[in-house]
Amino acid sequence: MKKLLFLSFAALCFTAATVHAQDSSSAAGSKGWQHPPRGGGFRGGNDEKLIKELNLTADQKTQFKAIDDAQKSKFDSLRNAGGSREDQRATFMAIIKESNDKKRAILTPDQQTKFDAYQKEREERMKAMRQHGGDNGGGNQ
Fold it and tell me: Which of residues 70 and 30 earns the better pLDDT score?
């Protein structure tokens, strides 16, 4: 009787562990790689400094938000579409460039100068991070 009880308990533990493992892997998603959520863009995070420096009008803030919302929507669609990471990265970069071009177009000449300086500084930071191992997951490994 004890042997039967022990085997039943062992089977129950094995089943629970298997179900938990399946839940964990399906929670990660089966849509290919997923980029972790992060701050940034007009919605907060790193660009708050830029928003303050540019001293945007209420209309410009509304337009920036609309551009960022459209960019986020495109990013989400691209992530859900699957495909190779390299292809997706190229498309992500094109979407970012398009968004930045739209943002730059609504700025005054003085704001454009500040925006360009900020973008250049950001690119240099990103380049430095990639060179020092900050790019964990892409590239040729």
Answer: 70
